[in-house]
Each structure stands twice: as C-alpha cells, then as structure tokens.
Amino acid sequence: MPRTLFPLAALALCACGDNRYDLYEHEPESFRTIAVWVEPHPDIPPELARQACESWRPEGVLCEIVADPMMALVRIRSSIGPCEKLKDGTYPLGRAYGGGDITLEIECLRKYGGAPIAERVLWPVIAHEVGHELGIWIHVPTGCDGPDVMEHPEVGPVCGTALMNPEAHFGLKGITTIDHGAYGLREEDHSVLRIAPDEGCTFTARE
C-alpha cells in the first residue's frame, strides 16, 4: 500500500508569492503529450480532466484522452467509498501514486462541489494530482518561513499560493509562478515521463 505524504494545512496566505491570481502564463518552444485515461464516471468528464491536465501547458505539457488504460501514462480512477476525515482534520480529495495512477475521492469532492461535482472544485484537484505525476512529489508550503521551503535559482523561495499546496484552492484554474518554481525542482526521474516513485501523495481540503 503506497504511503501518504504531507497531508498538511495550507490555508493562510503569507509573503513570497501569495498572489492567488499570479498565474504563470508562458508558451514554451516544444511540448510533450501525456496520454490520459479516465475511468467512466458521471461526475468526471474526460474533456474537463484533459483541460485540467493541461494546466501544465506553460511547462510544455499537452494532454490527450485515450480509451485504453494500457495506453495511458496517467490513469484517473474514482473511489466511491465514504468521505472520511483524516487525522489532521482534513478530507482527502485525491491521491496520486507512483506509475501514473490517480484516485479521485468522489464523496469528498461532492462534499465541496455538489453532485455533479462543480468544475471549480474538480479542476484544481485533477491538475494537482497530475503535477505529482510530473514529478512534484513534495507539496509546496503556503507559509514561507518553515523548514520545507525550497529555493529555485531563478524563481526564489518556492512557497505561497499554488496548485501544489497540500490543500485545495477551489477555483484556481492554472499554475502559479510558485508552481513553476516547483516544476523546475521536480524529480524528473520520478515522473510519468520517466519512472514514477512507489509512494503516494494525498490532496486535502479543510472543512
């Protein structure tokens, strides 16, 4: 069973990069396409999943939906079990596992986004989990004064509002400059573009 990493709270905004509208909008010179399979579920439109995956387009990532999970680098499945609170008081929205496997927690997503699940809730969750599969296996802290803050040589401290915070920012439909910094520090060897790690990461929300 893959282990869960860093289900931390990340709601407070602080210095260095907390402008929630500071999206990273860049058109790279080249792209790589990720094949994505979405398990059929009435709340998970494949086209929305593809668009959420392409939140990473500024980093040269394009996404296409395929019908066969064996042909996909990323596989999005739906868990229909009950929504159970984690020990830290948050609720799991999605989980990313090594090798390209993503699980969406349907009942917890419905807790925040209704049924069918609102796009403003579903989009950032899928984009976040895809970010893990691209090699960002450590969550980006919102606070900029803790021990987990990483330093990017061009962007600076990788902390602040981002898709890759451990708790969701509903309505965020694109990567921020902080996500760009995290992407630059990603574990390339632990990406679906190469080989993903065995451990997993859980994306959460606080009531």
Strand order of the largest sheet: 2-1-3-5-4-8
CATH fold type: Collagenase (Catalytic Domain)
| Secondary structural class | alpha/beta
Major sheet details? 6 strands, mixed
If you compute it from the alpha carbons, what radius of gyration comes out, rounded to the nearest whole angstrom? 16 Å
The stretches of 5 or more residues where confidence is low (pLDDT under 50) are 1-20
Write down the overall geometry.
globular
CATH class: Alpha Beta
N-to-C span = 27 Å
Question: Counting H and I runs of at least 4 residues, what is the number of helices?
Answer: 4
Mean pLDDT: 87
- The count of domains is 1
Which architecture per CATH?
3-Layer(aba) Sandwich
Structure summary, number of beta strands: 8
Q: Helicity, in percent?
A: 10-25%
- In CATH, the homologous superfamily goes by the name Collagenase (Catalytic Domain)
Per DSSP, what share of the residues sits in E-state strands of 2 or more residues?
15-25%
Instruction: Please write the string of helix (H) and strand (E) elements.
Output: EHEEEEHHEEHE
